[in-house]
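Ticket #4471: structure export looks truncated?
Reporter: QA, pipeline team
Priority: medium

Steps to reproduce: submit the single chain below to the structure queue and open the exported record.
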Amino acid sequence: MNIPVYTPDLSGNEKKYALDALESGWISSIGAYVDRFEKSLAEETGFRNVIAVSNGTVALHLAIHCLDIGPGDEVIVPTFTYIASVNTIAQTGARPVFVDVQPSDWLMDPEQIERKITSKTKAIMPVHLYSGLCDDSVNELARRHGLAIIEDCAEALGSRRSGRHAGMSADVATFSFFGNKTITTGEGGAVASNNDALAARMRKVKGQGQSLTRRYWHDELGFNYRMTNIAAAVGVAQMERLPQIVERKQHIARLYRSLLAGLPFDFQNPSGDVTSNEWLVSLLLPEGTDRDGIMAEMAANGVDTRPVFYCAHHMPMYFTDERFPVAENIASRGISLPSYPALTDEDIERVCNVLKLACKVASV
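Actual output as written to the record:
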């Protein structure tokens, strides 16, 4: 039996609630489940305002747009990230400015940020990747310079630093509920903010800029970024089991680290007092390893893996000759292992054995 990298856990009330939404007739962006989903997210994260949207990418674009960032502005972002973080900056007409990451937690390096701040800098976008949360010093630096903070929490629902949920110190935090995220709505996302005025604007702009008090009155440019009631119904069911899902994923991560201890692999090491949701267990293969060969060997033995993200500054539309050595090294060596909640301990042992065998074949 093949072991995929990820498959969602839909073993709760997902079908029941989705059918209820269908039978209610409220299948688009108005319905009880949208309200319930937003409320459950607010209760989990601690934000006063959570607004459901159609996916995690538009969540980022909505946040940047409503912070009035646009042509001529710059936003500092790590080059080691999923491309949506960068694309959404460019979509507003602003310029993404890349920084390197730290070798231990693979997240943006605070020391490099200050050197990239100019008079055009309007915001910093910390991106929480895989199992890590960016250091608080990133946000402290942004505040000292009067910059907006947009935290990309697409992979961080359920993760906390010193007891506070990821994103709580940002102007806006964004989330993704794609099929491989800790909880899913199929496609879906959310923006969250404790700034009531900003949240009200994001709620209006996500719905074609329609006034929140006057139907069909549109007094600013808006977008159709709304989540459907059917998707939210699935999200409500997922949120009911978030603690159990996270607990299982944390167990999976601990078991991987235990079974692979003493071998020449480097795991991501979150800094500080981080309680991670352990979204996707990832590690670095030894220097000089044929990553593609090892992944192909594992696939031949029924275990899927995937490379970590490529650096954004290597993409054709953002290419630059500037070097980001830490990010480049991680991007060339990293792989992600199967990490979905339904994995059994026996499955994880099999993944580890297949990885060891693949490395042996590659003479690692």
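Status: closed, not a bug. The export was complete when the record was re-opened. Leaving a note from the reviewer for reference: The first helix runs from residue 14 to 24.
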